[in-house]
Write a structure and sequence with these properties.
Elements lengths: L1 H32 L2 H7 L5 H13 L4 H13 L4 H13 L2 H11 L1 H24 L29 H37 L2 H8 L4 H12 L4 H13 L4 H13 L2 H11 L1 H23 L2
Helix pairs in contact: 1-4, 1-8, 3-5, 3-7, 4-5, 4-13, 5-7, 5-12, 6-7, 6-11, 7-14, 8-13, 10-12, 11-12, 12-14, 13-14
C-alpha cells in the first residue's frame, strides 16, 4: 500500500505541478496587468454581470481545479466579490476547449452541449448564492501600487519599466502566492494520493454503479478524488460501459473536476468553514439535479 501511495503521489505531482505553475503565473500576470478599475467594474460588484463575466472567462481558460486556485485568490485579493470568485472556481476546471472536444468525440454532441450549459448554470447559481452570503473578509483589498517604490500606479516610472513589471509578476506568482496557499496545496496533494491508494476503486464500481446508487458513487468519488475535466471523459465513458446510468455519468463530469483537496483547504482558509460547506453542498445538489435532468431528456 505504501508503494501504491508513492506511485500515486508521483503521478499527482507530475500532473498537478505544471498546472500550478501555470496558475501561479496567470495570477501574477493578472495581478500586475489587470487594472484595479477593471476588477472593480467587472468583478467587484454583486450583480449578475460580474458572475457571468467570471463564469464565461473561467470556462474559456485552459487550467484545472488546482491551477484556478491561485488565479481566483489573486482576483479576490484585488477586490473581486465572493460570488464571482466562487463562479470562477466552478467554471474554470469544469470544462475547457480540449475537454469539450474529447467529450464530443467520445460521448457525442448531446452530452457535450448539455455539459457546457450545465457548467454555466452551476457557476452562475453558486455565484448568485455566494453574493448573498455574509462572511468576514480576511484579505485586504489590494491597491494598484508599484511594489518597488510603494507609489500608486501611474505616478511612478517603475510601471513603465518592463523588467520591473516582469520581476513583479514573478515575485507575486512564485513567492507571494505559494506563501499564501502553498502549504494547503501540498497537503492536498498528499491527501489525494492517500485516497487514490487506499480506496479500492474496482470494488466500489462493482458495488455502486447500478441504478440510483450510481449518482451516489459519482458524487462521492468525484468529491474525494481529483480528475481533470479532460480525463473525466474517458473515465466516465468506461463507467457507463460497465453499467452506470448516463445521469450518474453527468454527475461525475460536473463534480469531479470542480472539487479537490486543494480547493477544500484553500476555501476553508480564505473564507471559513461555513462558505466551504455551502459551496460543496451546492455543487452536490446542483450536479445531481442536472444529472437526473439529463437522464430524463
Amino acid at each position: 500500500m505504501f508503494n501504491e501511495f508513492l506511485l500515486h503521489l508521483k503521478h499527482y505531482f507530475i500532473e498537478i505541478i505544471p498546472a500550478l505553475v501555470l496558475g501561479f503565473g496567470l495570477s501574477g500576470l493578472a495581478h500586475e496587468f489587470i487594472p484595479q478599475s477593471w476588477v472593480d467594474r467587472n468583478l467587484g460588484k454583486t450583480g449578475l454581470k460580474p458572475i457571468l463575466t467570471s463564469t464565461l472567462v473561467g470556462a474559456m481558460l485552459p487550467i484545472c481545479c488546482w491551477g484556478s486556485l491561485p488565479v481566483a485568490i489573486g482576483l479576490y485579493k484585488k477586490g473581486a466579490k465572493l460570488g464571482p470568485v466562487l463562479a470562477f472556481l466552478v467554471a474554470t476546471p469544469a470544462t475547457s476547449i480540449s475537454a469539450l472536444l474529447v467529450s464530443y468525440t467520445v460521448l457525442g454532441l448531446k452530452f457535450t452541449v448539455f455539459i457546457f450549459f450545465a457548467v454555466i448554470v452551476m457557476g452562475v447559481t453558486i455565484g448568485l448564492v455566494g453574493n448573498r452570503l455574509h462572511y468576514v473578509r480576511k484579505i485586504k483589498e489590494e491597491k494598484d501600487i508599484c511594489p518597488h517604490c510603494n507609489a500608486m500606479a501611474g505616478t511612478c516610472g517603475h510601471k513603465e519599466d518592463l523588467w520591473c513589471r516582469v520581476k513583479s509578476v514573478l515575485k507575486y506568482a512564485y513567492i507571494d502566492m505559494p506563501r499564501e496557499i502553498g502549504r494547503e496545496t501540498l497537503l492536498a496533494i498528499v491527501l489525494a494520493a492517500f485516497v487514490a491508494a487506499y480506496v479500492p476503486l474496482g470494488a466500489l464500481i462493482e458495488r455502486y454503479l447500478a441504478g440510483a446508487w450510481g449518482y451516489v458513487f459519482s458524487l462521492v468519488f468525484g468529491l474525494l478524488t481529483y480528475v481533470c475535466s479532460t480525463a473525466t471523459v474517458p473515465l466516465t465513458d468506461a463507467f457507463m460501459k460497465q453499467g452506470m446510468n448516463v445521469g450518474a455519468g453527468m454527475v461525475f463530469l460536473l463534480a469531479g473536476p470542480v472539487t479537490s483537496y486543494g480547493t477544500i483547504l484553500v476555501l476553508r482558509k480564505e473564507f471559513g468553514s461555513k462558505i466551504l460547506f455551502i459551496y460543496l453542498g451546492l455543487i452536490s445538489i446542483i450536479s445531481i439535479l442536472l444529472g437526473i435532468l439529463y437522464a430524463n431528456i
